[in-house]
Amino acid sequence: MEEKILYTITIFSENAVGVLNQITTIFTRRQLNIETLSVSPSAIKDIHKFTITTYSDSEEVMKKLVRQIDKRVDILKSYYNTNDELVHQELALYKLSTEKVMEHGGIEYLVRKYNIRILEVTRDNVVFLKAGHYAETQALFDELAEKIGVLQFIRSGRIAITKSPVERLSDMLAERERKMTN
Prior knowledge:
Layout (H helix, E strand, L loop, with lengths): L4 E10 L4 H11 L6 E6 L5 E10 L2 H12 L4 E8 L3 E12 H7 L2 H8 L2 E5 L3 E8 L1 H14 L4 E4 L3 E4 L5 H14 L1
Antiparallel strand pairs: 1-3, 1-4, 2-3, 5-7, 5-8, 5-9, 6-7
C-alpha cells in the first residue's frame, strides 16, 4: 500500500451561501477527511479562497476530487498541490500560566528558542504566537505541555500560496475575459 501524501486543495469561488457545504459533501462522498481548512478573501476582488488539506494515497483521487469540485456552479476553479509546490504556514496560539513560565526560566528563553511572538502578558497568563509548519507548532506544544503546562491551545488551518509568480486563477479569469470580448 502506498504511503499517504498530504495534498493542499485550493478552491476559488464567489462568497456565496452554501459553498462550504457543497465542498464538504464532495469530500464526504469520497471518504476523505479534511485535516485543515482556511477560508479568506483572495487577492482577486470579490473572490474567496478555500485552502483545505487532506491525505490520500493516490494522485488520481485528487484529480477526481478537483474535477468534481469544479463541476459545482458556485466554484470558479480548484487545484491540488503537494508541499513542494507551495509556500505554507500555520499559526498557533498558546496560553500559559505566567507564574509557571517564570519558574521555567522566563519569557526571553522561550522567545529566543522558538522564535515566538508575545501577544499578551498579564499577571495570570502569557499568550504566545508561533508561525510555522505543523511539525514546528506541534513540537512547541509538546514541549510546553510537558515542561510548563498549556492552559489553552489553538492552531489555524494551513495558509498557502503557490511558488508560481501569479495566482493560477488570474490566468483562467484573463482567458475567460478574452473569450467573452471576442
